[in-house]
Structures
1.
Amino acid sequence: MDVRGAGKESILDCVRVQIFGGGGGTMQEGSKYGNIVRYALDRIGEGAWKAGAKLPSVRAMAERNGCSVNTVLRAYEALQSEGYVYAKPKAGFFVAADPDRPSPRATAAIPFDAASPDESAMPYKEFFEYMTKAVFQRRGALFDYGDPQGLPSLRQALAKHLQDVGLFVDERRIFVVSGSQQALQLLVSMPFPNGKTHVLVEQPTYHGMLRALRTANVPAIGLERTESGIDLERLERHFQSNPIKLFYTASRFHNPTGWSYAKSQRESIARLARKYDVYVVEDDYLADLEHDSRNEPIAANDGCDRIVYVKSFSKTLLPGMRLGLAALPPPLVETFREHKLCADFGTSSLSQNALELYLRNGLFDVHRKSVRATYRDRMTELIRVCRETLPTQVTLDAPAGGIFASLFLPKTLPEAEFARALGAAGVPMVPGERFFLPGFPEAKPLMRISVIRADEAAIRRGVELVAAEARRLLRTTPKERDEASGGHWI
Ligand SMILES: Cc1ncc(COP(=O)(O)O)c(C=O)c1O
């Protein structure tokens, strides 16, 4: 949100939280310090002080407000630490350019809508060393295009890495992809040896897959997924009577619900795929967060003969590296190679080399354990706080782990309205409609909640706000809410 586009109230509310650290109570209303911050934000907010403009000198501001130079300095430094202004030695303070200024909402928010990790849980500095090593020790790779399938030595390391999840795949079937999203997009667009045309997706499902289907203009069919999995008879009927090229599934820690399939369901899916000549694309994007080694992927049930196994490094490492892998059944390898080559000639060799060094030195394993524990603790806290705090009409079907869960809403709490209210309260979440095919009935309206960027304390604060918003909306009728907002709900 651009400061200029925001109402004054919202800026100040956020600033109170950001700079003065919490509820209005901690800010001394009317203090000189507060007045200076407020005045500067107003000027910036309404565009009177443009990017690059010099702020009044500290001395002039002190005189104007009848306060000490120190008070002005503290106020300017608070604005600086929040990115609104910057200091030039011996010249004074200047208004920061828009891109350098964080969105007040974004920094004040507890980002329950996040899908990418924060710095605190990621080995950024450590990985940076490996990037540097990749540049210096393997600089030859930077002067070449490399194999579109991926660095052979990295593929060997990945084949070994996959054994940890119970997959024994020859490296000749492994592709390094520029994020698992790329694998999904290529699989959706390319022809399959079974000659079929349609894609079957769980409902709800990962919205990035729905996007890929939409842009590739591929016909899609939905199959309901609930806390107890999918109806296997329905799955069989789809496989039998529709031209299903592939069935896309996130077998564990599903996005957006966090659910995982039971062993018997995973085995049945693999069996039915083989029986009806359907491929399964298993998106195991959170495999590294699994605590129970007996929970193997669907692909472990057929050695990747019918199953395309897709894995991401974005949630446990760095999404900006754009690293993922796809392990393919042999009949798909050549077509996938051709499509991957046309997409980008291969994934960045810099990222690939850094990952290989990182994996080979055993650091990924160490990091994986720590990140797994971090997210498990957060999820445990989310489940506990939701149970204690949310009104009984709003329920959370506890996931086995991972980073996402869904809050299920009663009909009296419309999803879109709740989403807007949560955004305004600084606890944004993603509304369920994003995870459904157009026209597919959302049996239980939902909101996706994520713990990837919220630690336990933030979860506690955030869920309190969510519960308060839910109670407020449940107390009033839609008509009353509409009237209270002057006809348009904000
Ligand atoms: C289920 C699922 N699959 C795939 C992806 C894409 O991840 P990547 O960054 O590896 O492309 C995401 C990203 O959020 C996801 O949630």
2.
Amino acid sequence: MQSLVVDAEWDPRSEYDVSDAERASKKAMNSSQVWRDPDLRVTERERPTPADDEVLVRVRYAGVCGSDVSMLETDEDGYVHYSAYLGLPNVIGHEFAGEIVETGDDAQLFEAGDLVTAEVTDYCGRCDMCRQGFMGHCENFEQLGFTIPGAFAEYVAVPEKLCWDVSSLREAYGTDDEVLRAAATIEPSTITYHGLFARADGILPGDYHVYHGAGPIGLTGMNVSRAAGAGKVIAFEPSDARREVARDLGFDHVYDPIERDPAETIASITDGQGADVHVETAGAVGQTYPAIEDSLAEGANVVHISNAGSDPGLALRKYQGSGAQLYGSEGHTGHQVYPRVIRLMAAGKLDNRPIVTSTFDLENAADAVRQAAERVDGKVLVEI
Ligand SMILES: [Zn+2]
Ligand SMILES: [Zn+2]
């Protein structure tokens, strides 16, 4: 079968302490310290056979994520920007939907013909983190499309415990093809849903939400905020094209943070009350945090989603003075997140399809990742 594979050279920086586990598995915990000179190409691979607890999914659509792009982008020494857990060579792609065509001997939740999407983090269920309910921070985790083969391929084998049925979307989306196209965008919306409702505490209908960054995560998050009853959804995004996508989605308060001072703009839109919810989805924390701190509503929730390469100097007194809290959020595992996002879609309250601005076929999937690297698209999809 065809699949999009990333490979790179294992060349740990001299100052990086490679653990025995990393050396044995050829999986780096901090990839930006280890993987060098990446290469991306569509190659033939053997069709996977599902293990006993897995299902085999024929992939229909898969979205390109910022993390896929960062496996290809490098610093001046050739090391990849991606800084988390990565084993190469690997089939990448983790935002997908498709049809189950085969089930492992012990798989019980699904049968052939079911339409599904899946979570990304395969957790063990036995480590201390898992046993305390933090499966997203499993100590023995693997990740689909990062350390185990992913979804830019005709078929992907997935632990059945990670799959979620999306057949409930048929009424909202009409055809199975549209169901799967929409379902391939569930994953990015779960990232902000997790931040807003599994991590932050006490977000209310009517709250003013501000997204700092309207890339794929920001845009799919704005849809979640609107579906959840935000009083206003405001966004700051420097890319003209991405602001246009946000406006096409029906968001009116979308601004270029370079042209319009965010704190002043938020003050005028909120009648001086500030934003109840700030979502950092830009990663440009040196610019976004000063604006956030100057526009905290009383009791504001700040949700940190992006992978920032550096740390902002936090103005702690401003959080204290506004009774504001800062929540770090990573991933989307557990906490009722996937089923709730699917319900919002089924109810017609959340439609990410207009965020898809480019679609490539699998043969040209490497171009899809290069296109996403331009950072002008809402979401780039691969149709398989
Ligand atoms: Zn992703
Ligand atoms: Zn675990």
